[in-house]
Every structure is written in structure tokens, then in C-alpha cells.
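Long-time lurker, first post. I've been practising inverse folding by hand and with some scripts of my own, and I keep getting stuck on stretches where the C-alpha cells seem ambiguous. Below is the full C-alpha cell string for one chain I'm working on. Before anyone asks, I'm not after the true native sequence, just a reasonable design that respects the backbone. If someone could post their per-position residues I'd love to compare against what I wrote down in my notebook.
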């Protein structure tokens, strides 16, 4: 009979980790590939810069109010929609501004607001903001 040689403690039982690591890496690749990255849809908002130190900033904005019946008020007086361009150009000649603020009632027809915006842009004001007054 043959006798077994005594082996050292290092050579006894060892667990081979290679197959387990292979499976872990395959699962990792599977989850990375199957994950879907969704880009959320949103509006791009351009905020105005804080330029209080700049003295050649335009003065106050042109203010236009539209009530629920479609009556247009500029400078405290009623204006016909065909005269918005002329009144805006007069305001531009007297004031250093490049913005206009249109305050419309909640029940105002959208067509009137859009037409006033177009008239103001024709007059030479590119920055137009619309405010909606509720109530």
C-alpha cells in the first residue's frame, strides 16, 4: 500500500473564485446595457443677469394693459390695436428701453394678445413679456 504524503495546510482546500467573478461581471454588463437613461423634457429658462452696476441699462419697460373685452390701454389711455405700433415708437423715442410688458386679463382672447405682441415687435421692441391677471 501506498502511503499518502502529508500536504501542507496551504495546499488543502481552496475555492476557485474565477467563475463567481465572471458571473458578477456578466450581470453587471447586463444591467448597464439594459438600463435606459431618460432625459427629462423641460423648458429652457433664460434668467436675466444682475447688471446693477451698468449705468446704461434701459429705463422702465413699455406697459400695455388689455382687459377682458379686448380694450388696450397704453400710458393710461385707450388705444386702438392699429395704433399700437405708433404709440410704441413714440414711447421708444422718449424712453431708453428695449422691453415691453403686456398685462392681459385672464378672459382676454389670445388673438388680441398675440396681435399686440406682433405690433410691439414691429415697433422695434424685441423683449416682450406677457403677464396674466386673474380675477
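-- Answer (accepted) --
I ran through it position by position. Result:
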Amino acid at each position: 500500500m501506498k502511503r499518502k504524503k502529508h500536504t501542507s495546510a496551504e495546499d488543502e482546500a481552496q475555492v476557485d473564485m474565477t467563475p463567481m467573478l465572471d458571473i458578477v461581471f456578466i450581470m453587471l454588463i447586463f444591467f448597464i446595457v439594459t438600463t435606459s437613461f431618460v432625459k427629462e423634457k423641460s423648458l429652457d429658462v433664460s434668467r436675466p443677469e444682475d447688471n446693477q452696476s451698468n449705468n446704461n441699462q434701459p429705463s422702465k419697460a413699455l406697459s400695455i394693459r388689455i382687459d377682458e373685452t379686448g380694450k388696450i390701454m397704453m400710458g393710461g389711455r385707450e388705444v386702438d390695436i392699429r395704433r399700437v405700433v405708433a404709440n410704441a415708437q413714440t414711447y421708444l423715442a422718449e424712453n431708453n428701453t428695449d422691453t415691453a410688458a403686456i398685462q392681459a386679463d385672464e378672459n382676454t382672447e389670445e388673438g388680441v394678445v398675440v396681435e399686440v405682441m406682433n405690433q410691439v415687435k414691429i415697433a422695434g421692441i424685441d423683449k416682450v413679456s406677457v403677464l396674466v391677471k386673474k380675477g
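A couple of notes from the structure itself: The longest strand covers residues 99-105. Residues 84 and 114 are 12 Å apart (CA to CA). Happy to go over any region you disagree with.
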